[in-house]
Write a structure and sequence with these properties.
Distance between the termini: 36 Å
Radius of gyration: 17 Å
Helix content: 55-70%
Structural class: mainly alpha
Number of strands: 0
Length: 100
Amino acid sequence: MVFVNVLVYVCMHPILWFLRVPQEVMEGMRQYLVIIYAGLLASSLYNFFACLLRALGNSTVPLVFLAVSSVLNIGLDLLFVVGFHWGIRGGRQQLWFPSI
């Protein structure tokens, strides 16, 4: 996981070039990828503990946790991005995409 994070941060520009990201959204895409890959540690820890609970025979708790966190993620995304007009990193800044 640490190796993948370092590799992504070092190769960020070539990855965006390979994906042919338009120049006008390049900075927003870079910010988004940095934030997403910074969350790999939390995602890996969730997967570890979910697999551990499933191995012990409890598959309900990981499923409920995943459902609650997904709904909470969608709700907070809508609140902060659409409601408060915060950008990708949070805080008041110009959006790189038109608001709805």
